[in-house]
Write a structure and sequence with these properties.
- The protein is of the alpha/beta class and 187 residues long.
- A five-stranded mixed β-sheet has the order 3-2-1-5-4.
- Helix 1 crosses helix 2, helix 4 packs across helix 6 and helix 6 packs antiparallel against helix 7.
Length: 187
């Protein structure tokens, strides 16, 4: 995926749910910090953008996430036309460290604008180390490959990741311990 595709996904998701801003929590949030040219191939392979709507409670967040997925999700006409999909997610999708909202990276430019040309939609992307925490708590093979590629490229700090992992109180028992063990192989 490319940065311009991320920006298009942000604009589209905001328009679908009629909200001015969303949070990108999946692997493509890395494009909020780095361009695709700066990233290893394993960091941009996903053709899905995970969008967390911003709402007053998780019930409304989940409802809005379903609307996004219904319009632009996997197997949608949007995916067929653009070659990638937008998956709406809720607050229970990712395990994130305390303070993650304070470290979000703002994506807003002419590509996140409506027809007026003025940027009016904002995507908030996870900080790279917070993204790695979420990926390592999931610890699927694709998540390991993603984080390993960033570590090998020197784009993330394993000490920051470890300290944020240690601060997580995960809803899934053992997630932090498995993640820290995996990260320990990189020390």
């Amino acid at each position: 995926m490319r940065r311009d595709q991320l920006e298009h996904a942000i604009r589209t998701a905001c328009q679908i749910i009629e909200r001015p801003e969303v949070i990108v929590v999946g692997s493509q949030s890395i494009l909020g910090t780095f361009s695709e040219e700066e990233l290893p191939a394993d960091a941009t392979m996903s053709v899905e953008v995970d969008i967390l709507p911003i709402a007053d409670d998780n019930k409304e967040t989940a409802r809005l996430a379903n609307v996004i997925a219904g319009v632009a999700g996997e197997f949608s006409p949007f995916e067929e036309l653009h070659g990638y999909s937008i998956d709406g997610v809720d607050l229970e999708t990712s395990v994130l460290p305390p303070g993650w909202r304070d470290r979000l990276v703002k994506v807003q430019n002419v590509n996140t604008a409506a027809l007026s040309g003025d940027p009016q939609f904002t995507g908030w992307c996870l900080n790279v180390e917070d993204l790695c925490v979420a990926k390592l708590c999931a610890l699927r093979e694709k998540d390991q490959n993603f984080v390993a590629a960033l570590l090998n490229a020197g784009l993330v700090d394993p000490k920051i990741i470890a300290s944020r992992l240690a601060a997580v109180s995960p809803p899934r028992p053992g997630a932090v311990e498995r993640a820290l063990d995996w990260l320990g192989t990189w020390a």
